[in-house]
Amino acid sequence: MTNSNTRTTVCGVLRRTTLATAVLAALGGSQLAIAQAQDNDVDATLLEEVVVTAQRREQTLQEVPMSISAFTGEDLEYLQADNLDSLQGAVPNLNLVQGRGSSSSANVFIRGVGQPDALQTFDPAVGIYVDDVYMSRIQGALFKLNDIERIEVLRGPQGTLYGKNTPGGAIRLITRTPGDEFEAEAGVVYGDYDRWQFSGYLSGPVSENFAMSLSVLNDTRDGFVTDPADGRKYNDEDTQSARLKALWDVSDDVDIIFSADYTHEDTALTLGRAEAPLISVDLATGGSVIRHVPSPGEWNFETRTSLGDAGGQDVEHWGGSMTVNWDLDDAFSFRSITAYRDLVADLYIDIDATELELGDVFVGIDQDQFSQEFQLLGDNGGNVNWVAGLYYLNESVPSHQEAYADDFLVFGGLPISFLRTIDDDLETTSYAVFGQVDWAFAANWNLGLGLRYTKEEKDYARSTSTFSDLLGNADPAFAFTDGDSWSDWTPTVTLDYMLNEDVHFYGRLAKGFKSGGFNGRANSAADVSTFDPETVWTAEIGAKTTMMDGRLQANYALFSSQYDDFQARVSIGDGVDFRFPVLNAAELDIKGAEFELSWLLTDALQLFGQVGYLDTEYGAGGFTGSDGVADSPAFAPEWTGRAGAVWTIDLAGGHSFNLGADANYRDAMWLSVENVEPLQEDSYWLTNAFVTWNHADGHWQVMAGVKNIADEVYKVEGQEFRSVGNIMTAYYGDPQTWNLSLNYRY
Questions:
Q1: N or C: which end of the chain has fewer CB within 10 A?
Q2: Rg for the chain (alpha carbons), in Å?
Q3: What is the DSSP string of 130-164?
Q4: What is the pLDDT of residues 644-672, one digit of tens each?
């Protein structure tokens, strides 16, 4: 029975990787696995490359002519990675954090390109794929990593090889596919905040040509944030997930992979901290009344909320896919990926993060999407490889929203009730044809040419009503419909040169595209607008090198991006006249560099490091927010870095210990498109450590880990709605946490 996701080695021989070697790969973040030779003829520690399929065929990372990081399932385990945002700090120039006010959304920026707004009228700028199925929403994208074979993070525009056109990059989650050997795993984790996680995995053949696997997860934890008045806990964890996967070898030439997954998350509110004084507007005097003043100093993870009894966040995310792989002959193969996804989210969000009812909202989403991708892949048996594809996506996102603000308006000191309801619906249809040819035109030289045509059509309808005792009854509903379409050609050109088997140079020029949309916060005719697409041109040169007889690998990249028509939501107004227009705000000029290093100093000690540098600024004319002050790009720290070491200690009887520690640095950055001082995070360091005991037979493992050892208090996200009560709310990263785990693998 074949497995399309099987890992192979550089020399073509598959060796079993020990737990100790997985640790070295994991914390290194340099995509190296350390394999111990198992036969009597070889007694040496070898560096072994991880094989990826970023270009739709198996290649080692050192062969792929682009910036890419990859992590196996073992790597993620030793990164203490539970959610997708655990990759934060492990990839140069990647900013990946939990979305503001949400327990399940992902805010992703790669090289300064991203989209932090979860509103359905914005598309992600970084594509997240699960088994090559594109996820249309950042809501629900903060996936659990309990059944992952490999994650690939591709930096820079993607489109000539992938279903959806994404200007920032792509994150590919490849889940494990069952094979012809029986596998069983079970694990339990206990940690502070009364964290309990139970997981299991079963995989094996059902018949001669049919195999199935089942993975399950239950993860719960008390909240990090406490209401000091009643002791309630917020920012907690309560997730259950399952995945059923099957591989059917129909014939020697055809196999079909079926996959179905389900995730349910039911948590309390996700609260941040009000970073600026909050105000009410007195309509009798036209002045403002201060209602809340933040406590000075570092946040102690305590706050109050007006939504304590209203509810938390309930998210159901499920879907299924069928992938057909058909080898037509020795030169041609065909692949079909058919998928359906459904996301139902009932979300309460206290935007002002206090006991006041200034910015409290309910957002109910019922999203579904259907996608179909066809690929035809071929080679001439020698110097040419190519892929051609067709892609179709249809997405529907109806939602119902309510905004509560009884503390926002007063008249002579008397409160005025305020409720706004919104019902809207967005339907998107995306079509694309794409292809890429890689031609080894001379010894050690390769030229890659790719081209994609994308057309997207969107239809949007919105109706909004305001209820207030100032009005006596409901305002007449304001409603509008809009529709538009956008298209673009996006090419990719790559030239790479193998100086020798240890040194690989490449250059890459690529264009990315993200379609336009409509203002999903328009509550009056003045705010009805359509914004244009974003495009990004990125030029990159790089080198991938192996030195010191294979004991050291160092990869380098320099890049420059021209980012046009950046889509930004701004906040305008005072008093009751507040508006949230969406603008094609500016151009961005982005330059940067990346460096990744892994060094096997001795057979027992590995050192690793990585550095990312970003120079981002708005182009000609700059970008000024509603306050008229020139702004800088958000979520784009100038410097990021990571360094650490892993030490392996062999014990009697074949058992072993692994000791690892690393430190991550992140430079100062803005947390909102319109820069406001309360939503800026200063530079900070995070430190982590772990120790594992590995049984000689490879079945049992005990692990203890600590993250954020110094208990650093740091911001990761921000809500800026200054025109409503002066709301500027920051969301914080996790405090210090520890965990103990016991795992069994058969």
A1: C
A2: 26
A3: ETTEEP--STT---B-SSEEEEEEEES-B-SSSSS
A4: 999 999 999 999 999 999 999 999 999 99
Q: What is the pLDDT of residue 475?
A: 64
Cβ count near 189 (within 10 Å): 20
Q: Which residue has the tokens 């392996």?
A: 648
What is the Cα–Cα distance from 100 to 696, expressed in whole angstroms?
A: 44
Q: Beta strands of 283-331 (E only): which ranges?
A: 288-292, 313-327
Question: Residue 10: its pLDDT value, please?
Answer: 28
pLDDT digits (tens, 9 = 90+) for 690-743: 999 999 999 999 999 999 999 999 999 999 988 889 999 999 999 999 999 999
Average pLDDT, the chain: 89
Written as six digits, the tokens of 158 are 């993607």
pTM of the predicted model as reported, rounded to 2 decimal places = 0.91
Go through 671-702 and write b for each residue having 16 or more CB atoms within 10 A of its CB, e for each that does not: bbbbbbebbbbeebebbbbbbbbbbeeeeebe
| Whether domain 19-745 has CATH 2.40.170.20 | yes
Tokens of 608: 């690793």
Q: Are 160 and 176 in contact (CB under 8 A)?
A: no
3-state secondary structure (DSSP) of residue 652: helix
Are β-strands 552-569 and 534-547 bridged in parallel, bridged antiparallel, or unpaired?
A: antiparallel
The pLDDT score that the predictor gives to residue 51 is 80
CA–CA–CA angle 458, 463, 465 (5° rounding): 155
474 band by pLDDT with thresholds 50, 70 and 90: low
| Domains of the chain, residue spans | 19-745
Structure tokens at 378: 């071929």
d(CA 327, CA 331): 8
Q: Which amino acid is at 411?
A: F
